[in-house]
Amino acid sequence: MKFLLLLLHVAVLFLPVQADETKGDKYWRAIEKAVKESGFNGTIVIGNKTQVIWQKSIGYADADRIIPLTAKHLFSPGSVGKEFTTVSIMQLAANNSLEYQDKISKYIHGLPSWANNITIEHILTHTSGLPDVVWKQHIRTADAVQQIKQAQLAFEPGAGYKYTNLNVVVRALIVESMTGQRYSDYVAKSIFNVAGMTDSFHQAEKELASKAIVSGDFPTNIAGLTIYVTPLDLFKFESALWNGSLIDAEQLKRVLPGDILSGKGNRAYFDFGNFSLDDKGRLVSWQHDGSNPSHHTLKHHDFITGNVFILMSSDGNKSTLYKILNELKIVASKYIQPIPSEPNEAMQPTANETAITFTADSGKSTEAYAGSFQVAENRNKPDSRQLTIHYVRFPALTDKPAAPIVYLAGGPGGSGISTAKGRRFELFMALRQHADVIALDQRGTGLSDDVAPCQSSQVMDTTAAWDEQKLTALHQQALVECTAFWQAEGADIYGYTTVQNALDIDDLRKHLQAEKVSLWGISYGSHLALAAIKLFAGNLDKVILASAEGLDQTVKLPRHTDEYFAALQRVIEMQPALNARYPDFANMMRRVQQKLEQAPIKVKLATDDGQQTDFLFQKLHLQLLSSMLIADPNRSVGLLLELYRSLDQGETDMLQFALKRGFFSNQPITMRIMPTVMDIASGISNNRLQQFKQQNAGALLGGILNFPMPHLLGQVPALDLGADFRQPLNSEVPTLLLSGTLDGRTYLPEQIEAVMGLTQLNHVVVEHAGHNLFMASPQVETAILQFFAKGKTDIKHITLPLPDFGF
Fold first, then answer.
1. Are 731 and 541 contacting, i.e. CB atoms less than 8 angstroms apart?
2. What is the C-alpha to C-alpha distance for residues 785 and 260, in angstroms, rounded to an integer?
3. 718 — alpha (psi -120 to 50), left (phi > 0) or beta?
4. Is residue 719 within 8 Å of 493, Cβ to Cβ?
5. CA 62 – CA 69 distance, rounded (Å)
6. Which residues lie across from 356 on neighbouring strands?
7. What is the pTM of this model?
8. I need a labelling partner for 678 at 20 to 30 A (CA). Which of 49, 243, 257, 541 fits?
9. Burial class of residue 762 (count of CB atoms within 10 Å of its CB; 0-12, 13-18, 19+)
């Protein structure tokens, strides 16, 4: 009787609601342009709590575009469908039928011995180590089970993160073992019926395929994976999920604070998508998307307003769903009167902060704050002009945040805010489980750059003969012109030093009213962090350095560059095909450079106006080009390898290809104040300069790697920060160093030397990683998260697959 009453309750909740036509028109007008421009083919449902506000089907259900799409047509929800297996497991756990720490071997027999080490929680969080599914059309449950039985684990259970559909199949098999029912029967009775999902079904066999399925999916017949739903039914599921009909609300709290091993701090535990919290730790929104392969689903639940958005399409363009969602959210916020609920305080900004929606290049977005504070351009001058330093603050997702984490971009000259929009966005989000994360635009970078670039009158003539000495003289003259230009613009070049830049960090700490801050820097950002340790270690909580550049390492030593190429050769030798192609790359480099010294190559160079000009390609050009391509062991190194090989064989096609990438031009030398002056000011010690000069002549790249340093050393009087700045430091600040063995910019031996005085050092070496290693492996993210949580990490060494350099 209780179950019957529940069904009646759900049916009443979802009686058809006549949407206000005026509001409906507003929704359509908001998305009409995006729909027409993208060719959107799908159905949209908007609701509030349990009430449907607006829905619309657009396009066709069949590939021939004959059958109009209706609200009754079914889509594959892709990864969103994984929620059904998760809810099934959680229901059984709530009934004490199983426990999350149970080993899967308890429920599934005939698996390899590794099943004795995999828990149900591992398969819910993709930390089991199981590999990817090998897909084929109409793949069956039996096929997937066979793959599971033959699987080799990618890592020890719980030691890593790998998102794989085999984990989902295991969940369904556990449900079948525990209940004695087929998974399709269980989900129909315990989820679809309870939520009132009258049109949805789990396709257990190929013959049961519904004619209502929209074309464009990849046909499968696998327990746990082959789910088809209507957008309206998915809205019903979302409502039932959060009103307690399917599982207790307390159970759902288990999916917070996030899936730590995935490296994504806002990723919910147990395959529920992504969430956001306010700075009080309360739920603000929940979002999940999925694909299969042309079917795309986007489910967004706003807990502040109660609005729920379901978008399902078959046109193969997921990005359109996010564009449409953003437009609908704006309209819904104006015209939907939310059902009253508990009040939710807004996140509180600090001084000079504005609430924003921060959107990454991937299209993902999060709520954040854009802030700024004032500093003196040159603290050594009482009448110095003021600079406005900009940042974006991502609020912590915990009610007990640690010291704010400040990201320091490399370069010098990189923008922290731009970095947060790129590939490292997920890492910024992951760190929020510990503290506020600050993307800082250092003085003279990004939004904090108010000094115009200087275009000198100096041009590197593309037809003239060049060597390092002549190129040095050209840049020295350009610097004279630019120094005068910046002074005429009202800028104080003596304000653009690493010391002044580091003191900005402490001013940011004061602006945030924080007792301490933690620093997270890469390349020049690590150089800046080390300066901060020397200047105000007592105000720092923890420090992460990646691809570290020491205080006396602005100029890298040429012998370490040669050692890098030796390490590169060792990796090549591990791969027979590559070794046959490049058996002795260093000698090949010397041979090609010697040929260019004797006979430069005349080629045509495309100019900015679309014309072509003569270009005399020489040894110096090849050394400059080489220095630009060796930071990371990716396609750029592959291009370098093939460039030398082709030139060694007297071919120029690869050279023409490389020159099209715009490495050289006939334009005047342009300088920016921050990267130019910072490096000159950090300088180089006399001892290191002597080593540089001694090693320069016979080195593969000469002294070009860090050009124009040390070539501009001493060109601006009294700018150098002096010997005390470059002295080794000693500190007890807990520090994590991340180093790649194939880093072609900051070499491993120098990184070790840079941190010798840090007594609480954790060092993680990433085998085969290059300079930009944050996203090289999930284990890198795990080490960072462990370090911020505990001040240490148990990860010491990470081994990446051998790089194939794009071949």
1. no
2. 8
3. left
4. yes
5. 8
6. 368
7. 0.62
8. 541
9. buried
